[in-house]
Amino acid sequence: MLELCPACQRGLENHRYTLFGMTVASRENEERLGEFSNALKTHDWSKAKEFSEFDGGYNALEAYALKCVSGSFVLLVVRDPFELFDSSSILHSEVLNQESGADLETVLGADNWRSL
User: Fold this and answer.
1) Rounded to an integer, what distance in angstroms lies between the CA atom of residue 93 and that of residue 74?
2) If you write DSSP's letter for every residue of the chain in order, what string do you get?
3) Is 25 a member of any domain?
4) Which of 44, 27, 67 is nearest to 35 (CA)?
5) Is 114 left (phi over 0), alpha (psi -120 to 50) or beta?
6) Would 3 be classed as within a structural domain?
C-alpha cells in the first residue's frame, strides 16, 4: 500500500508500524464509525485506541501509526475490504507534528511496534 514514507520520502527500511484501532465500516455502524473518525481527526489517541471492532462480512476502517527513522510519526487511515479480491487502500495519511507524535507514542507504548 505504501512505497515511500510520507515523512521522509524514502523507502520503508528500518521504519516501524502498529495497528492501533479499527471499526466496522457499515451503515449499521455509522455512529461508531463517526466517533472513530472524529477521534483520529482530533488526535484523541486514547479514544481511538479503544476501537477494536471487526466483522469479516464488512469493510473495516483501520488506524495505523508509522514510526519514521527520522523520529517523525505518520497516521495512516486504511480501508480494509471484506471482498476477497479487493485490496486495502490508504484513505488518509498525515505526518504528525512533534507534540501529536509524542502523544501517540506515549499512548501506544514501546512494545507494540513491528518492523516493516
Assistant:
1) 7
2) --SS-TTTSS--TT-EEEEEEEEEESGGGHHHHHHHHHHHHTT-HHHHHT-B---TTSEEEEEEEEE-TTS-EEEEEEEE-SSTT---EEEEEEEPPHHHHHHHHHHH-SSS-EE-
3) yes
4) 44
5) beta
6) no
Residue 41 within any structural domain of the chain: yes
Range of the domain at 42: 16-108
Write out the three cell numbers for 111. 512494545
Interacting residues of 49 by C-beta distance below 8 A, sequence separation 6+: 20, 21, 107, 108
Model pLDDT for residues 16-33, shown as the tens digit of each residue? 999 999 999 999 999 999
What is the chain's mean pLDDT, rounded? 95
* Residues forming beta bridges with residue 89, ordered by sequence position: 79
9, part of any domain: no
Residue 95's contacts (CB-CB under 8 Å, 6 or more residues apart) are 6, 7, 72, 73, 74
Nearest Cα to Cα of residue 25 among 15, 34, 17: 34
Count structural domains, the chain. 1
